[in-house]
Design goal:
Strand content: 25-35%
Number of helices: 13
Helix content: 25-40%
Strand order of the largest sheet: 13-16-15-14-17-18
Bound molecules: flavin-adenine dinucleotide
Shape: elongated
Radius of gyration: 25 Å
Structural class: alpha+beta
Length: 414
């Protein structure tokens, strides 16, 4: 039986960074990965392009992290965005900074991010055994003494749980870490899908399937009270809504739906124009094109797939000439442009969630080491911790920074 200084559960970005850092400090490190291949999720990030990290400063960065971004201050001060970029560049990956402070590989290939990280850990002599699912932690007097995987016992005094969350389970992230930690006494905060599309009632979304709206404002209504809003891009799907601003707002929607509340979304299709300015624009267009059919003038105002939906919803006669449109009808058109409403019926499942909210409570993890406050020699890294962020490269940075810190401290403390 080989003894390892540190055994890491999971070869995602958090586990790999932990392993590399611990090995840099001279630790004998083993990663056990239950899939046949490392970093399955990393390879599909950013629609296959991998939004590696974000250029925001620490102070701003943590405002994009929930529920307690401040927990990450120490980890970020030790290993942050510039450090992961430098590491990737050292191992042959060129990166490009895009809009919104987002870093991507210049060749847009997420697997190349994984390749660079693997090159680093391999060079440092980290051992990776794939096809090993960790089933149990072994403790004695609240200290780690080993673990069991595929029925086999491994001795070690340090274990890092880097098993990820529960989203996209086909990549290997099936929530095992929560159960491993729970069985040694850790509190698991309620785990829910986050950054997830939502389903809407009726046929409206289906009719608009594929329509991508840019520069719109979506507002969330919970029991008819405003609960949040976001400006940017969204998309209609065959079941409902998705796209960046919907994913961001899904945090509120999922919680409220799970609490049994009524959730609605209203979309302001013309956020740059207030009611008065929009009315002036409609009056001008209707006057200028008085002899044209109403359906044709709608092309000036809306994407073509929305026109039949609007006409139907408002019960307008599409063949009516513009000069026949009454002020009441114009008001209705204006109102719908500013308040295009859909009722949200469900959220999609973990299968389609970019990230998992909830997890191992940060109250029981030391922010300066990532070590458990309950079990000596047990560390946590990555999405398994109750931390999640908006889209923009923030989530991967949480994985690298907490991973690096867990590797650093587990290898430093003898
Ligand atoms: C479609 C999609 C796109 C995304 N795009 C981005 C993006 O562009 N930018 C960004 O910042 N974030 C993105 N994310 C989020 C990001 O991928 C995650 O935050 C990140 O992968 C978490 O890293 P992790 O190492 O904690 O967990 P994971 O990457 O989930 O890795 C955990 C590993 O542990 C293994 N494991 C689990 N249980 C066991 C066990 N019992 N024994 C052994 N091994 C086990 C799993 O097989 C897995 O390989 C995206 C997520 C998805 C689903």
């Amino acid at each position: 039986m080989i003894n390892y200084d540190i055994i890491i559960i999971g070869a995602g970005p958090a586990g790999l960074l932990a392993a590399g850092r611990a090995a840099e400090l001279g630790g004998k490190v083993l990663i056990l990965e239950k899939m046949r291949q490392e970093g399955r999720k990393l390879m599909i990030t950013g629609k296959g392009r991998c939004n590696i990290t974000n250029s925001a400063e620490i102070g701003e960065f943590i405002t994009h992290v929930f529920p307690k971004g401040k927990f990450l201050r120490n980890a970020f001060s030790q290993f942050f965005s510039a450090d992961i970029i430098a590491l990737l560049e050292q191992y042959g990956l060129d990166v490009t900074l895009e809009r919104g402070g987002r870093y991507f590989p210049t060749n847009n290939k997420a697997p190349d991010v994984l390749k660079a990280i693997l090159k680093w850990v391999n060079e440092l002599g980290v051992e990776i055994q794939t096809g090993y699912q960790v089933e149990k932690l072994i403790t004695e007097d609240s200290c780690i003494i080993g673990l069991q995987a595929n029925g086999k016992v491994f001795n070690t005094s340090k274990v890092i749980i880097a098993t990820g969350g529960k989203s996209y389970p086909a990549t290997g992230s099936t929530g095992d870490g929560y159960e491993l930690a729970r069985r040694v006494g850790h509190k698991i905060n309620k785990v829910i899908p986050a950054l997830v599309p939502v389903e809407t009632e009726g046929q409206t979304a289906k009719k608009l399937q594929g329509l991508n709206l840019k520069n719109v404002r979506a507002t969330i209504w919970v029991n008819d009270k405003k609960a949040g809003d976001a400006f940017g891009e969204m998309i209609f799907t065959h079941f409902g809504l998705s796209g960046p601003i919907i994913l961001t707002l899904s945090r509120i929607m999922v919680t409220e739906l799970q609490n049994g509340n009524n959730v609605g979304v209203s979309i302001d299709l013309k956020p740059a124009l207030d009611e008065q300015k929009l009315d002036n624009r409609l009056i001008r267009d209707l006057n200028e094109h008085g002899k044209k059919r109403l359906v044709n003038i709608f092309r000036l105002w809306l994407p073509s797939s929305m026109i039949p939906v609007f006409i139907e919803e408002l019960g307008l006669d599409p063949d009516k000439e513009c000069h026949q449109v009454s002020s009441k009808e114009r008001k209705q058109i204006r109102h719908l442009m500013k308040n295009f409403k859909l009722k949200v019926s469900h959220h999609r499942s973990f299968k389609e969630a970019i990230i998992t909210a909830g997890g191992i409570s940060t109250d029981e993890i030391r922010p300066k080491t990532m070590e458990s406050k309950l079990i000596k020699g047990l560390y946590f890294a990555g999405e398994v911790i109750d931390l999640d962020a908006e889209t923009g490269g923030y989530n991967l940075q949480i994985a690298y920074s907490t991973g690096w810190m867990a590797g650093n401290s587990s290898a430093s403390i003898k």
